[in-house]
Specification:
The protein has about 210 residues and is an alpha/beta fold. The protein is built from 6 helices and 10 strands; from the N terminus they run βαββαβααββαβαβββ. Strands 1-8-2-3-7-4-6-5-9-10 form a 10-stranded mixed sheet, with helices on both faces.
Length: about 210
């Protein structure tokens, strides 16, 4: 049975988040709220956990996974970012945007796109999630929690726990979050390419 961690949205209890981090370090998958919708997360350096993440989500290795980062400086350590890209990232972080960038050597090749060597990166604007990232001390590998066969993300922590009770190690409940995935933009080439329009306002990034 997946553990349910009920935390305060603005002042999440460190004791509970530390328990959630311990599950990640043991290879567990968590469902966490974000500033867009719920996401599945796991430890970046755990191959079995990453494989399990893809299995639960129902995607193959060509589906871009995302690194959730604490801030822009951490993001820049996991991607190759030039001055133009950095300005765009700065204008949209933190926020509900995922950017596709060329992965740096800090990203295990098995989690980047197999042919393009790119990875999704983002800095969420969600207190409980940022506290979880801080306690974990590194980015988390993530994907939007859209169940196989569904079109929309799942958003109710109790429903998520019931539906995935034998596949998840835990669910963090910090109250409701928006029922809309991130806006995804590929900025790995010279011109930005919109991959998915979501909660992030296109005008904010000049699209």
């Amino acid at each position: 049975m997946a553990q349910l961690f009920e935390v305060h949205p603005d002042n999440p209890q460190p004791r509970l988040l530390k328990q959630a981090v311990a599950l990640l370090q043991k290879g567990g998958i968590l469902a966490v709220p974000t500033d867009s919708s719920y996401a599945l997360v796991c430890h970046l350096d755990d191959k079995a956990a990453a494989d399990n993440l893809r299995r639960i989500r129902g995607v193959d290795d060509k589906h871009h996974l995302t690194l959730l980062c604490r801030d822009l400086s951490e993001l820049a350590a996991y991607a190759r970012v030039d001055n133009r890209q950095y300005r765009l990232l700065k204008s949209a972080t933190p926020g509900p945007y995922t950017f596709i960038l060329e992965a740096s050597k800090e990203v295990p090749r098995r989690v980047s796109h197999p042919s393009r060597k790119t990875i999704g990166l983002r800095v969420p604007e969600h207190t409980a999630l940022l506290e979880l990232l801080a306690l974990h001390g590194a980015p988390l590998l993530a994907t939007t929690l859209i169940a196989p066969g569904d079109d929309l993300p799942l958003n109710d922590p109790l429903d998520i726990r019931e539906r995935f009770e034998h596949q998840l190690a835990g669910v963090i409940d910090a109250g409701a979050c928006p029922l809309e995935p991130t806006t995804v933009v590929d900025i790995s080439d010279e011109e930005p390419v919109l991959i998915r329009e979501g909660r992030g306002d296109l005008a904010r990034i000049g699209l």
